[in-house]
Design goal:
3 helices; 5-stranded mixed barrel; 183 residues; alpha+beta
Length: 183
């Protein structure tokens, strides 16, 4: 009698474990599919959100992003998140490693040199969007907002007012954005 119950028990355990694995897999799939990734770059701001609410009804070309904790002291407390236009952006593809310069006693700035291709996109983008607001996005987070006062033709960007820790962490993460030259 015992030998007949054991196969059923084994079958039951396998079925339960399989069900748990399948349910966990679907749960993980649902979570990862709802997370949107966005390339590092300069994006046009559609609006800033001061309510700290999740925007559900966004157009297909819109995305809600949040400010990086590294730049809390720079960004206004009034802006919890930003709605950006993902249709057109300037990719943050660097020609060489970012350079750090001391700005004040407590603050530094990062100097970024874009590749020639990204520089052309920057020139076109900033010419088209003069007097509009843009945001620099790295690792899916807003770092700094700026108003384009004139076209940027140099292919150079600055990230200013970052404290030592923020500049160091950002500098490390931007190393992945350096275009590797083919030999």
């Amino acid at each position: 009698m015992k030998s007949q119950k054991r196969p059923f028990t084994d079958y039951l355990i396998r079925t339960i474990l399989t069900t748990i694995v399948v349910i966990s897999g679907f749960n993980g799939f649902a979570q990862t599919s709802s997370v949107q990734t966005i390339p590092d770059g300069l994006y046009l701001i559609i609006k800033t959100d001061t309510t700290n609410l999740k925007m559900d009804a966004l157009a297909s070309n819109e995305m809600q992003i949040y400010f990086s904790k590294l730049f809390e002291d720079y960004n206004s407390e009034d802006n919890f998140s930003i709605i950006i236009d993902t249709t057109e952006y300037v990719p943050l593809v660097l020609d060489k490693a970012p350079m750090t310069e001391q700005q004040t006693e407590a603050k530094k700035k990062l100097l970024l040199s874009l590749t020639p291709e990204a520089s052309e996109k920057l020139k076109s983008f900033t010419t088209k969007h003069v007097m509009k607001h843009v945001v620099l996005v790295v690792a899916g987070e807003a770092l700094t907002m700026h108003k384009i006062k004139e076209p940027i033709t140099s292919g150079q960007l600055q990230i200013t007012r970052c404290n030592d820790n923020a500049c160091e962490q950002l500098n490390l993460s931007l190393n992945d954005n350096i275009k590797k030259m083919k030999k």
